Amino acid sequence: MAKKGGNRKLKRLAAPKTWKIARKESKWIIKSSPGPHSMETSVPLGVMLRDILKIAKTSREVRYILKNGKIKVDGRIRKSIKFPVGFMDVIAIPTLDKYYRVVYDNLGRLDAVEIDRNEARRKLVKVTSKNLVRGGKIQLGFHDGKTLLTDDNTIRVGDSLLISVPEQKVEKIAKLDKGNLSYITGGQHTGEIAEIIDIIKGTITRPTQVLLKKGDEQFLTKKDYVFVIGEKEPLIHIG
User: What pLDDT score was predicted for residue 1?
Assistant: First the structure.
């Protein structure tokens, strides 16, 4: 008999390194469903609530909380324990007046920092694609799987937009330019905030790199790992 799809189970030891979990606590862990983020760049909502935020002790408790519509991600109620949440997503628990933003820790694992209610109404998204569509509109694709139609042709791939959630109204644009602040999402400097010094164009064999400065230290990293968060100060609270 033919196999039906992929494996629905996931062992803790085989979970992505970006998951901030105890590897030997038990054998199995919740597996992400297909969604706005890949498995490597997200964690299931159930894992975030139980293992990272410690909102519940068991998967049964998490399912009860989600079933009753008590959890919002980016302003929308989510009821699936497997729904993937990733970098910059906002998790809201209105009944507890608790709000969190998903970030990376200094070990490259997805974590969450507590924010206030006003901060939970907006998030930063990175522009990962830009296409011209029917009607002369420009369609922007973001790192979190969302898209937006706009007339603003000055926005480039690599820029970040401060948007409201869930409306997706653009409030500010943070350009991938020299002097602006960035958050590193990959490599040995993951989770650090650094100033953009220069952008070094790539070649056929070498990707575009960005020269960054943190304190007295300068270092290079891939453009893909650079997430612009503001000019002199971050546009949002990220810990």
Answer: 47
Residue located via tokens 């999402």: 185
CB within 8 A of 128, min separation 6: which ones? Answer: 141, 142, 143, 157
Q: Please give the pLDDT value at position 226.
A: 97
> What pLDDT was estimated at residue 5?
55
Half-sphere CA count of 136, side-chain side, radius 13 A: 2
Instruction: Count Cβ neighbours within 10 Å for each residue of 67-78 and write b for 16 or more, e otherwise.
Output: eeebbbbbbeeb
The DSSP 8-state label assigned to residue 202 in this structure reads: -
C-beta separation of 146 from 36 below 8 A: yes
Phi-psi bin for 197: left (phi > 0), alpha (psi -120 to 50), beta? alpha
Q: Provide the residue count of the chain.
A: 239
Question: Which of 228, 239, 222, 229 is closest to 187 using CA atoms?
Answer: 222
- Pick one of 2.40.50.740, 3.40.50.620, 1.10.10.10, 3.40.50.720 as the CATH number of 121-173: 2.40.50.740
